[in-house]
Amino acid sequence: MGEQIAIRFSGVSHSFKERMALRNVSLEIAEGEFVAIMGANGSGKSTLAKHINALLLPSEGKVEIFGMDTSSPKRLLDIRKSIGYLQQNPQSQFVATIVEDDVAFGPENIGMEREAIGAAVHDALETVGMLDFAQRDSSQLSGGEMQRIALAGTLAMRPRILVLDEPTAMLDPLNRQRVLGIVRDLSQSGITIVLITHSVEEARLANRIVCMSGGEVAIDSSTEELLAAPERIAGIGLDLPFGAQVAHELERLGVSLDGHPLEQKIGELLWR
Predict the structure, then answer these.
(1) Distance between CA atoms of 211 and 216, rounded to whole angstroms?
(2) Distance between alpha carbon 132 and the CA centroid of its chain, in Å?
(3) Which CATH class is domain 5-96+156-230?
């Protein structure tokens, strides 16, 4: 038996008034995959993310989640139960003043059994390293703490798919690394992860990278293959980390890093 398809886009286009945000996108993501969706501003990556949990519906084509059509009102609750969606602004995702109550909001909203909510909240807070914050006033949290609590609220719903729409965009470097570390660990648990980002450094955590440009899929590649050809990334307007630019330029000039101690060091600095 082959892998189950968690997310399927079939000829999906989406327009906002006169502007086409997605153009004939066809894409499949298997259950358990960790896929990074990259692209410059305006490339369509966030619009694509909002189609996954039916915040937007296609102007043309079809989106299916585990075989369920997002345009079917009868399947909307089942789709929303299957998907956790984390946005970039942590403050916009809070609805309660106490952390524990906020994390419980999602499970309550999708009709989770009351006796199961407590365990789900506990497990989610433990996963993000925030169990000691359960009774804190959410308004007193830092931005990084808020984002980890928002992620806990998403995980408490026990989603099969986790969509992260530029979740580190408003975080300082330390909290950025904390959130990405949690995402990396979650990817080992079997959950399907879709990470929306413009950062090559973040995308390297995924097994597969899909690059958007002008509302279309410009590149669909394994992470390893794409990072070995940085000119493809630069070709769609994305910036490589400085270390990658240095390594690529050295190799372009004929300076081989194979077997050289610098090779490992550049890799450590480049993708940590």
Answers:
(1) 8
(2) 26
(3) alpha beta
